[in-house]
Design a protein that fits this description.
The protein has 287 residues and is mainly alpha-helical. The protein is 68% helix and 6% strand. It is elongated and about 80 Å long.
Length: 287
């Protein structure tokens, strides 16, 4: 009965083993994850860079305590989030339709971190205000994009700890940013921390664009679904190519004698198993 099938049980079981370990982007997803998380940390390090240096900035611009609290502590913070919140919505929507999400991530980071870098050269309060406001574009816009990409790199089982590492990177970045600003500002001025944080963030964004693989939207779910289909198909193939006679199943015996099993590999379908009917032999008399 097994002679009518293409391949044998050993071959199909070997294909089953390959199907089980085939996970999309498995080789490169660690690199992509590290780059995205590093960029996240640098982005959030920028969020509170100004806080430890409010007095230094106020002295340079000639603000009294009330103006310092209102203009530096209040107005700039409000402008930062007034840009960041809409940016999160806009970039999140674009992440659902744009194919090259790594390029979208690069553009988002460059807008915000370019403004952060230019803060080093700000000479008036108006320049400082708008540059800090534009920085919110990268902090707000990058977060939904990072979640979108990493959720396609990892399946449902792994997304809990991946989301945890993203949140950890955000908190780690805020702490590092305030520490860097508190350490550098009294010694080398309040502007230097903006260069120290923004340049590595832009470098990481360029590396994401150059090195991280483009992830197919919904790829993790598709991979899981294909793997489950593979497991079902190869079980059927292994069973039907087994030369051991099937006991007490005359219906299955009769069906198998009129069909053959074809197992193959297609770039579009992946591993597939197909049953085809065999034309009855005209020379064999009908029973």
């Amino acid at each position: 009965m097994a002679e009518g099938y293409v391949g044998d049980a050993a071959t199909v079981r070997q294909e089953r083993s390959s199907a089980q370990i085939e996970i999309p982007h498995r080789k490169n997803r660690t690199l992509a994850t590290v780059l995205y998380l590093l960029t996240t940390s640098f982005l959030f390090a920028d969020q509170n860079l100004l806080s430890p240096s409010l007095s230094l900035v106020a002295d340079e611009f000639g603000f009294d305590d009330l103006e310092r609290d209102q203009k530096l502590g209040g107005d700039i913070s409000v402008a930062f989030y007034m840009i960041g919140v809409p940016a999160a919505m806009i970039v999140g929507c674009l992440a659902d339709v744009v194919e090259r999400r790594s390029f979208l991530f690069l553009v988002t980071v460059m807008i915000g971190e370019g403004s952060c870098c230019l803060t080093y050269f700000a000479r008036t309060y108006g320049q400082l205000f708008w540059l800090r406001a534009l920085t919110g574009c990268s902090v707000g816009g990058a977060v939904p994009l990072i979640y979108s990409v990493l959720s396609d790199l990892y399946g449902p089982v792994d997304r809990g700890w991946v989301s945890g590492t993203i949140s950890m990177s955000c908190g780690f970045g805020i702490a590092i940013g305030q520490g860097v600003s508190g350490f550098l500002s009294p010694r080398w001025g309040w502007r230097l921390p903006f260069l120290v944080v923004s340049i590595p963030a832009m470098i990481c964004a360029v590396l994401v664009w150059l090195c991280a693989p483009e992830v197919k939207r919904g790829g993790a779910e598709a991979g899981l679904e294909r793997r489950q289909e593979h497991e079902t198909d190869v079980e059927l193939a292994a069973h039907m190519t087994d030369p051991t006679p099937v006991q007490n199943d005359s219906q299955f015996e009769r069906k198998s004698s009129n069909q053959k099993l074809i197992a193959g590999d297609s770039p579009k379908l992946g591993l597939y198993v197909q049953l085809e009917n065999i034309a009855p032999d005209s020379s064999t008399p009908a029973s």
